[in-house]
Amino acid sequence: MIAIIGGGISGLSTAWFAQKRGLEYVVLEASGRWGGKLQTEKIGDFVVEGGADSFLATKPWAAALARELGLGERLLGTNDTLRTIYILHNGQPVALPEGMQLIVPTKFWPFLKTPLLSLSGKLRMGLDWLIPPRTDSADETIGSFVRRRFGQEALEKLGEPLLSGIYSGESERQSLLATFPRYRELETEFGSLIRGTLAQKNKQAQANKSGKRPVMFQSFPGGTQELVDALVEQLTGTLRLGTSVTALGPSRLGYSLSLSDGTTLAAEQVIVTTPASVAATLLQPLAPRVAEQLDLIRAVSTGTLSLGFRTEDIKRPLNGFGMVIPLREKRPINALTISSVKFPSRAPDGHALVRVFFGGSRTPETLEKTDDEILAMAKVQLLDILGITAEPLFHRIFRWHNANPQYDAGHLDRIDVLEKSLPPGLHLTGCAYRGVGIPDCIHQAEEVVGRL
Ligand SMILES: Cc1cc2nc3c(=O)[nH]c(=O)nc-3n(C[C@H](O)[C@H](O)[C@H](O)COP(=O)(O)OP(=O)(O)OC[C@H]3O[C@@H](n4cnc5c(N)ncnc54)[C@H](O)[C@@H]3O)c2cc1C
User: Fold this and answer.
1) Which ligand 1 atom lies nearest to the CA of residue 303?
2) pLDDT at 244
3) Which residues, listed in sequence order, are joined to residue 427 by a DSSP beta bridge?
4) Is the beta carbon of 438 within 6 A of some atom in ligand 1?
5) 244 CA to centre of ligand 1 in angstroms
6) Which among 99, 353, 395, 414 could disulfide-bond with 106, CB atoms 3.0 to 4.6 Å apart, if both were Cys?
């Protein structure tokens, strides 16, 4: 029997892959609901995401799982005619210029004309064509990489909000190899990020005969919760909610799990999918060296605030999915998404759903504020950025404590060591290790079951 600790997307998909192989399993979830950081709420006709709202379509594992579960027809792509992302620049939302592939410019004129960067900042980015590539394979921070290829201005205005912001992280600590390994590959192969990205773009254009822009993110009409619900419905093993694993010890069979209801459970194999800090506590008596390494994986807390409005309440609408806010703008919020633009059917006709992100490494103290204080803080920002003076029709705050693992430089080496040091029959998987996105969690779940 396999005991799977944690009932987020990692734990549930681990159970799914175990079930496909005919293995007997039990999933133990401490809280009163399945899904962990996937949580969707219906508020009237609004579909409100508390945590993750979508998954990257270029990483195939989430969509593949959805199809296996019979959700293929319900996969919903983003509204890609309005894919533009904005960056707050000197207090004003500025669209990323056409041709930007995240931080890499691939079209000359739109890049030259953008007010986002000074002329010297643009020229410095252009030096990427000439700067020789790094020749060793050691990890480095996002800060070091972007500064080396594109310069300090590009780091502050593009790299920090676009590459670190999405990890709620700090560019001077975040690992390049664990979060954007493709950039190092492009640098090594083509000697320049711009050259590599252009080559990649041409290759994709040739392969894409339809000429249609491939969809970037996917979800479901009922939100990411649909994936969780389908898993729970189709898992035939033992699923136990409200059951926290409080300790792990050796047993004749393999391992003995102490549970919060005072009972114990014996299992031949244990797969821990909890946050790394919980895994560290559980593994301490069995594998103290692994626990020590797990304790080094930092996590930060973040929050989301969703607000419903009438469309006309947004006096200065964004013609895109949302906006990231560089650290240098010194705002108390990190980003905002217009969820009703990003996906169809997130808000009823004539209405808009706005999601504000706060906390993380920039403003961890925001999580400690009351709901009223967070709402008041967000309203000031929404007035300033989107011109919203109207009261929201509703608001909903989700706080995610220690929920965002931080992949600091050297992260992958640490995970290699940690995995090699695990005692037989004990496994780790989840967002703290080899990818935080939903597809990465599912992929890691499949791999861990493959290793059993
Ligand atoms: C605000 C936010 C937005 C995000 N947006 C996106 C996005 O748009 N796209 C994307 O791909 N990813 C996104 N992510 C990341 C993604 O949601 C997570 O990485 C992923 O859901 C993590 O799943 P998991 O199962 O590994 O961990 P979790 O969801 O944390 O699940 C772990 C589970 O373990 C349980 N647990 C803890 N301790 C115990 C114990 N002792 N015994 C039993 N159970 C225990 C917890 O209750 C929890 O349910 C976002 C994350 C956040 C916080």
Assistant:
1) 1
2) 98
3) 271
4) yes
5) 16
6) 99
CATH class given for the domain over 100-207: mainly alpha
User: Which protein residue has the closest C-alpha to ligand 1 atom 38?
Assistant: 274
Q: Ligand 1 atom 2: the closest Cα is on which residue? A: 51
Residue nearest to atom 14 of ligand 1 (CA): 52
Split at pLDDT 50, 70, 90, the class of 253 is confident
Q: What is the pLDDT of residue 79?
A: 86
Across the beta sheet with 76-77, the strand order is 55-56, 217-219, 76-77
Task: State the distance from the centre of ligand 1 to the C-alpha of 144, rounded, in angstroms.
Answer: 29
Q: Is it the case that residue 276 has pLDDT exceeding 80?
A: yes
The chain-wide mean pLDDT, for the chain, equals 96
Domain boundaries in the chain?
A: 2-34+226-297+407-451, 100-207, 299-405
- Kindly state if the Cβ of 332 falls inside 6 Å of ligand 1: no
What span, in angstroms and rounded, lies between the C-alpha atoms of 300 and 310?
Answer: 33
pLDDT of residue 208: 79
- Rounded Cα distance between 387 and 401, Å, is 31
The CATH label, of 3.90.660.20, 2.140.10.10, 2.30.40.10, 2.60.40.10, for the domain at 299-405 is 3.90.660.20
pLDDT digits (tens, 9 = 90+) for 355-385: 999 999 999 999 999 999 999 999 999 999 9
Instruction: Give me ligand 1 centre to Cα 17, in Å.
Output: 18
Tens of pLDDT, residue by residue over 182-222, are 999 999 999 999 999 999 999 888 887 777 777 889 999 99
Determine whether domain 2-34+226-297+407-451 maps to CATH 3.60.15.10.
no
231: CB partners within 8 A, 6+ apart: 12, 13, 15, 16, 34, 69
